[in-house]
Amino acid sequence: MIGHKLNVLLQAGVIKRNKPFKHPCIIKVITKTFFEGGRGGHSSLADKHSKQFSSIFEEGPKMDELELPIPIVALAATAVHCALLEWQTGEHNKLTFHGDTYQPIYERHVKVLEDVRNERGKYHRLMADLYEMTSRSKKLAGEIIVDIGAMEE
């Protein structure tokens, strides 16, 4: 399944570097971890911390488009990294997702996202798209529909 999903972002053996963090595995991790409620009808983490989802723009039409915060995206990407390492031999070898082990990976993802943030329009589009994809994905029955080519800054 992971191999099939990875093909979504591969074209002629090259990773599409203009679509960072939009892999379906990352979307699924964010959705399940932050946007789905807990057992017994409890609120989701996103509902409990809704003020954390704000736009980088303080005025204008984009100020109402919510964004995912950098730590959520970096943590999800780090978790997917760990999951891929569990299968690197072709057989599943359970690894412990421990902060000391994966902190450098997490920090690398944070750095990439901070670098993207220097391009405010591109950063906003990425994080607002990720918010939309993750907060709505359960409504779309797991289907992720994005026309990246038609995206605007």
TrEMBL record:
Domain DUF6532 stretches: 13-115
UniProt-listed Pfam families: DUF6532
Domain of life from the UniProt record: Eukaryota
Protein name per its UniProtKB record: DUF6532 domain-containing protein
Organism this protein belongs to: Hohenbuehelia grisea
